[in-house]
Amino acid sequence: MRLSPRSESAEILYVVPSNRIALVWLALVLACGRIGYDELAEGPDASVGEPGDAGDVRSASRDTGSVVASIDAAPPNIMPPSPDSGTAPGIDPPVERDASTPVAMDASTPVAMDASTPVAMDANTPVEPVCPAVCNGGCGQGVCRITNPTVETTCAPGMPCEITCADARSCKVKLVCGAASTCNIKCLGDRACSEEIHCGTGPCAVNCDNDKTCSKVFCENAATCAVTCNGFQACGFPVNCGTSRCDVRCLGDSSCFGGVACTTACACDTTCNPSGCPGGPGAHQCISPECTRADGSCRSDGACSMCQ
């Protein structure tokens, strides 16, 4: 039986040994794999080729790679932000410094300080005065305030002084104004200020505002001396004026029955209590008989005022 030509060729292909087919495929793979991968031949025309040549393919491949490389390359000095940094790309992160790192500051740089930070002061910086210990009521508004002292007390020097004897029978001690710039003594409790009261060199005011308050009052060298006896039998002992102007007001019933001595004052003005000025030891001793009123009080007008 004869085979057709088509059948003969198929038969021929069928009988080709398998090892030859493998060699053919290997040759094709090697031939295709070299396209685009061979190095360009050296020589003056190495970079020039006809369209479609492998050289053009290789050149284009390298050029494209360089463009891609230039696009993919990150620009200098731009770092992607860290997830926790909180900074935008292109901005340097903050620099951490410890306590030993010096920091340059100008006059506009704010400085945080706590209570332990020393503050340099110049001569123009006001200094808060220290309140003396004797001022047991504090030094509000620059006044030394003394309340119900239980021992002999002298005001702090160089500042206004206020002594308040508010409780009954309080201030059973000697009270001294001393070198206070001004002195104000308030005897408010019943029978308060039962011991001597001595004014200082500054203006002095003594207020005996309750019953039987204030015993002996000495104006001494006070710039001015003003004593007010408001309570019943207040100022039961003599009020002794000094050399300066002296004013004594006997306003409570039976007040100033101890008398008022103002013969050494440059001017003395007194008032009698509602019952009148007492006579005898309780009389008001004025600068001169001419300075005595008809009711026995002292006047300080005209020739009876010799203060400079």
| Contiguous uncertain segments of 5+ residues | 1-16, 34-76
> What Rg do the Cα atoms give?
58 Å
Determine the N-to-C terminus distance.
172 Å
Major sheet size, sense and barrel closure: 7 strands, parallel
Molecular structure report:
- The protein has 308 residues and is an alpha/beta fold.
- The chain has a domain at 142-301.
- Helix content is 15%, strand content 16%.
- The chain contains 3 helices and 14 strands.
- The N and C termini lie far apart (172 Å).
- Residues 1-16 and 34-76 have low confidence and may be disordered.
State the main characteristics.
alpha/beta, seven-stranded parallel sheet, 3 helices, 14 strands, elongated
Give a topology summary.
Elements: H1 5-14, H2 18-33, H3 54-72, E1 144-147, E2 153-154, E3 161-165, E4 175-176, E5 183-187, E6 197-198, E7 204-208, E8 217-218, E9 224-229, E10 239-240, E11 245-250, E12 260-261, E13 267-271, E14 284-285
Parallel strand pairs: 1-3, 2-4, 3-5, 4-6, 5-7, 6-8, 7-9, 8-10, 9-11, 10-12, 11-13, 12-14
Give a short overview.
The protein is an alpha/beta fold. It has helices at 5-14, 18-33, 54-72, and strands at 144-147, 153-154, 161-165, 175-176, 183-187, 197-198, 204-208, 217-218, 224-229, 239-240, 245-250, 260-261, 267-271, 284-285.
